[in-house]
Specification:
Transcription Regulator spoIIAA; alpha/beta; 5-stranded mixed sheet
Length: about 110
């Protein structure tokens, strides 16, 4: 199953694909305060029905504190235990590194 979301008030996109083993959430654009509410809803929904959630983040161009908080499901332990960020864009990777949160990164930025 695959679905796509686009936030018309910001430069944010997300698509969700569910497989037997995991849910892949592809996010792109600006993960900021404007996109945070929708993004958090998507992340929490993805985490509600699967063992593993992979967030494909190579197309993230900007991320602020609100966007990161939403991306990681408000830092809820049940979300952080199942979420892995794959191909973190440089802005996202740098923010995660500054916060000491590289443990959520599946692969290092190239």
């Amino acid at each position: 199953m695959c679905s796509q979301l686009t936030d018309t008030t910001s430069c944010f996109t997300a698509s969700v694909e569910t497989t037997d083993r995991e849910t892949i959430l592809r996010v792109g654009g600006e993960l900021d305060m404007t996109a945070a509410s929708l993004l958090c809803d998507v992340v929490l929904e993805a985490c509600s029905g699967t063992k593993r959630v992979v967030i494909e983040a190579s197309d993230v161009t900007f991320v602020d504190a609100a966007g990161l908080r939403a991306l990681l499901g408000h830092y809820r332990p049940d979300v952080l235990d199942r979420v892995q960020v794959r191909n973190a864009s440089l802005p996202l990777f740098r923010l995660l590194d500054l916060l000491g949160m590289l443990y959520v990164v599946e692969e290092r930025h190239r």
